[in-house]
Amino acid sequence: MNRLLQGYLTRFMRVGNLEFVDPAGQTFRFGDGSGPLVRVRIKDRRTEWALALNAEFELGEAFMDGRVDFEAGRIYDFLDLVLSNVPSTMPTTWARMVYRWRVLTRRWRQHNHSRASRRNVAHHYDLDARLYRLFLDSDRQYSCAYFETPDADLEAAQLAKKRHLAAKLLLEPGQKLLDIGCGWGGLGLYLASIGGADVTGVTLSEEQHGIANERAAARGIADQARFLLSDYRALDTQFDRIVSVGMFEHVGVGHFDEFFAKVGQLLKPDGVMVLHSIGRFDGPGDTNAWIQKYIFPGGYIPALSEVLPAIERAGLKVTDIEILRLHYAETLKAWRERFLEHREEARELYDERFCRMWEFYLAGSETAFRHQDMMNFQIQITRNQNAVPLTRDYITRTEADLRVRERDYLRPPLRLAGE
Length: 419
Hints:
This protein is α/β, with parallel strands linked by helices. It folds into two domains: 3-86, no CATH class; 114-409, Rossmann fold, CATH 3.40.50.150. The chain contains 17 helices and eleven strands. The strands form two sheets. The chain has a seven-stranded mixed sheet, sandwiched between helices. α1 (3-12) packs across α2 and α8 (154-169) crosses α17. The longest helix is centred in the N-terminal third of the chain and has 21 residues, at 45-65. 44% of the residues are buried.
């Protein structure tokens, strides 16, 4: 093993039981020997040096290509072990230099004008619709769930997320609601069916657009919940309520002012918006290079210190902020376990390299939320501070009311059209 990689692992791997087998077949041991063994085999010298120089990017590619394999444990076990030892700040001078350069140039990679946004969305969300059925809940919620209790399963936690958002929106029947980045329509259908809202959802994904409208038609509420293949920037109608879940991560730091200025135009004077997004605890940064290339081109996870000034500049008011810390780690764990259970089906849809890519994506994302200062935030936004109650008690009361309504509407449980 080259001295650079060996020195790095020796310096930081204090706890755990990690073995590396280099291309010559020699085994190197790191950690204190505690816990389950994770054994990694590196198959060629080029990969070994690539990992030493830029592990953040090269590990994912090497795993996808089969140049790195695991003889004990899986990629998740390795990432969990290493990231629990390595500090969340860049651990070497070279890594810090690379990261600073990426931060300096991030606006170029996140220049999400309308054409680029449509292309980037298609890259991830217009994959074969059967893929997402393999690991998401029955309502195909592709964002952080809300685990009200430690033993809640994914179905209950995703329903709780929708309920929690509906309560914060202070919905009243007949109100016009906009869902920016509506996904496959699950939240919009809930807010129409349970909350009585008149819902307009927008997405740039052709797959999501088609499925969301099919589901609305199957429920007989197509006149109450319609989903448009449109950029939110093209809208000019005002709404009583606006919600956006898991879309803000695709806006890009250079477009934050544009996003909230448009929200200010679309939200009625007494309206309420709730923004649900992944965030980072440790301040402004940049997207992981591997994630940027293979999973979410143009994407960026913002810090609150970047989001709140943009809201203020738009003349909007923040009336509530909630931080969801480990909820997404538990969501991703459920997705990862479900994906691995159906891995062979995914391989039939695509190929082995794709399955390795997806496993790395889910494992890397989960461990990032456990060890690397990632979280989710929900921000309630208004134009008029009198639009919401003085205290937060209404959230609990409204959720209790919504549970009663759900018993009438959610029998049988939410299912995709055709399932």
